[in-house]
Amino acid sequence: MPEGTVLLIDDEEFLRQAIARTLELEGYTVLQAPDAYRGLTLLREHAEEVAVVLSDVKLPDGRGLDLLPRYKALAPLAEVVLMTAYGTIADGVQAMKTGAFDYLTKSDADEQLVVIVERAAEKAQLQRRVADLEKKVGAQYSFESLIGHAPALEQAKKVAQQAAPTDATVLLQGPTGAGKELFAQAIHYASPRRHKPFVALNCSAFPKELLESELFGYRKGAFTGALVDKKGLFEEANGGTLFLDEVGELESSAQAKLLRAIESQEFTKLGDTRPTRVNVRLLAATNRDLRQQAAEHHFRADLYYRLSVVELAVPPLSARLTDVPILVQHFVQHFGAKLKQKPLQISLEAMQALSSYAWPGNIRELKNVVERAAILTPPGQPLTVDDLPPEIQLLPPRAGQPGSDDPRTLRNAERLHVQRILQESGGNKAEAARVLGIAHTTLYRKIQEYGL
Q1: Angle 440-450/429-436 helices, nearest 10 degrees?
Q2: Assigned CATH for 143-315
């Protein structure tokens, strides 16, 4: 049974009633208007329902061809079919160019009307489903989906939101599991490229000898086993965004080719002699200190500066522990729905323990802990401290606990200093270690020791 509403605009009442009756017998809801003014008024009131506008070309107060852009402006997802008593090829071509779905001569209406309206309604319904899906995807990957309100996270969101509408390359820096890809997706879906592909590649997941062909593709016969042409991810992302995670893993030859692709928006495939042009925005992420890597000649300096037009420090969970309860509740709801069970209840002591842990694995580790708890905790029982992994149960004393809040002790003075430097660096451990003048491993040990 056809779905949707048809808006029928025609000044010939007898014909209009006959067409409306035919369409109603096919299962459509039909709205009728005798002129352009009342047709546009009905369309404005029912824009969300109307799937097809069936309009006469010659109306008492306007021409269908001239009105077509107004129909599309009021109901962008609806399809417009124009009808005329005396159709010409030129008028039909003009109608299609202006955006009409089809052009129908009234003398042929009995034979073609139902088929054309059905096809137009199917296309309109498909467009609505795609639009609804895009809205859901956009909401799923919006900045609102980056859960939390800690200052470090809010600062990162602010930078990302400022960069999103541009085509600037963005280098996301932060530890593994902190949510760099979520930030990249939010940037893409807040950009003008949101309706084009978002393509992600983890550079550490491919052998170095295959990474270049994965990025840029190859021609048939380029090497043994290249039996067909292969598109690279740059081509797959054409018009959209390419996200390179762990970009610091690229070897020197791939770095040189990537630099040229960013600067010129073209590259040459393996086995090809002519360049391929693309229009791609690049986002990159790393858990390394690429500035230091470039200074030590372990990464191309020119590529680093090209990637880091905008640098974005994605904070580790240890720099935003106040967000842990919000994240826990989000994951509790998520896994409750996934496992088709009531959301897990968390005891106050367990929540305090979760909020005090350093989370070296960041949000990914927290998500795994909540999923494990949702699976293993007996139905109807709250999660207690005893149900948590041993490393979370056996925490050192933290500020606010007995014997730990005296700022004069050397331990607390050091803890507060390390905490302040981490906050000032936006959670960037490499930068914090540099400011503190200690090795990365020493900083990680102190973060674990103090539960920062």
Answers
A1: 100
A2: 3.40.50.300
